[in-house]
Amino acid sequence: MSRALGLAALALLGSAPGVARACSTCMDPTEGSRTLLVVTIFLSLLPIGMLAGIGGYAWWRAEQMRRLAVALPLLERT
User: What is the 8-class DSSP label of residue 46?
Assistant: First the structure.
């Protein structure tokens, strides 16, 4: 039953193209240009920031392991 309801809702939305438009800032030429630019910059920088965060975390963990490898023989002697 819920599958049929989902298909009916999808058919209804597909038949009404006015409902499926983008947000109002994308459609308004006076307000939308700045907002669209900010969103474009954010979405362009987001993957770079994610990769930098993953790389920074990997470097931090490698440094922890290196420090542990140096300190472990010193701890075993005592």
Answer: H
Integer-rounded Cα Rg, in Å, for the chain is 26
HEC per residue, 3-31: HHHHHHHHHHHHHCCCCCCCCHHHHCHHH
Local confidence pLDDT in tens for the 78 residues of the chain:
588 888 888 777 666 666 555 566 556 666 667 777 888 899 999 999 999 999 999 999 999 999 988 877 776 765
Domain ranges of the chain: 23-77
Please name the residues in contact with 21: beta carbons below 8 A apart, sequence gap of 6 or more: 27
